[in-house]
Design brief:
This protein has 252 residues and is an alpha+beta fold. The protein has helices at residues 2-10, 15-22, 26-40, 51-54, 60-73, 94-107, 131-134, 152-160, 162-173, 204-216, 238-247, and strands spanning 74-79, 82-90, 112-118, 121-127, 174-185, 188-200, 222-226, 229-235. β3 and β4 (121-127) form a beta hairpin. α2 packs across α3 (26-40) and α9 packs across α10 (204-216). The protein starts with a helix and ends in a 5-residue tail after the last helix.
Length: 252
């Protein structure tokens, strides 16, 4: 059986098909393929559609959105036998989870994408070591403890699709809330509610990327301190909130 299976594998038949034909686990078929390659001295390089490595054009709007997600709630694992990009999404927002997965598939369709339920969130993962090619900001330590600077080609995409980048940032480390205050109207104190957007991140560089892009699209913003730390970017002016509602909107 093993010889017959290996013969099919050498003809390019997928592991899944061979496993189904012989009624054996795919892991067994994958091991037979690995051992056959080792005996024959064949070096295997998984196929890739990585834009920097293949010269393929990156999907610009999807990349701008995914870049915003990565800078907020994303990280890359890149070590022997474990390579993936992870985006952590609040489990309450199923639309955000779908959007994160769709962006990964549009930027690189070939890698396997999976979801893992964690406490209060969903981890969306794309499995390939080539994510480090697309996100050169990857490095040791936490993002807010190292410099985060966009490469020229990344900045060109952000400049061309600023709202997608802003949407990714807000969907990761931002929110739309309803604030309230009171004011005197006709001698009577009345409650007044108004919508407001926040973006919160410890990295000075990432907040600067956010505010620079907001300024370019005409959104007015201010920085509010959390204690003594100015981690919060606030958008509260009526015209700016209207712009954000038109292009970003609340999470869903």
């Amino acid at each position: 059986m093993r010889e017959e299976a290996v013969a099919l594998l050498r003809r390019g038949i997928p592991n899944r098909t061979v496993a189904e034909q012989f009624g054996i686990p795919r892991g067994t078929v994958a091991w037979w393929r690995h051992e056959d390659r080792r005996v024959r001295g064949e070096t295997y390089s998984p196929p890739t559609d990585c834009p920097p490595c293949t010269g393929r054009d990156v999907h610009p709007s999807a990349y701008a959105y995914l870049l915003g997600l990565y800078l907020g709630d994303g990280h890359i694992i890149s070590k022997p036998k474990q390579h993936h990009l992870s985006i952590f999404c609040d489990a309450s927002w199923s639309g955000l989870v779908d959007a994160a997965e769709e962006a990964m598939r549009l930027v690189m369709p070939l890698p396997r994408v999976s979801r893992r339920a964690r406490k209060g969130c969903i981890e969306v993962k794309s499995h390939t070591h080539h994510w480090t090619c697309l996100f050169p900001q990857h490095g040791p330590g936490k993002k807010h403890e190292r410099r985060i600077i966009l490469d020229g080609w990344q900045q060109e995409i952000v400049d061309a699709y600023p709202w997608e980048f802003i949407k990714g940032l807000i969907h990761s480390d931002g929110c739309r809330i309803t604030n309230w205050t009171t004011r005197m109207v006709g001698g009577e104190r009345k409650r007044y509610e108004y919508p407001r957007y926040f973006f919160t991140n410890k990295s000075d560089d990432i907040r600067r990327l956010c505010t620079d892009t907001l300024t370019k699209v005409g959104v007015e913003w201010t920085v509010l301190a959390r204690g003594s730390d100015p981690f919060n970017v606030s958008i509260a002016r009526k015209a700016s909130v209207a712009l954000m509602d038109a292009h970003v909107g609340p999470k869903h």
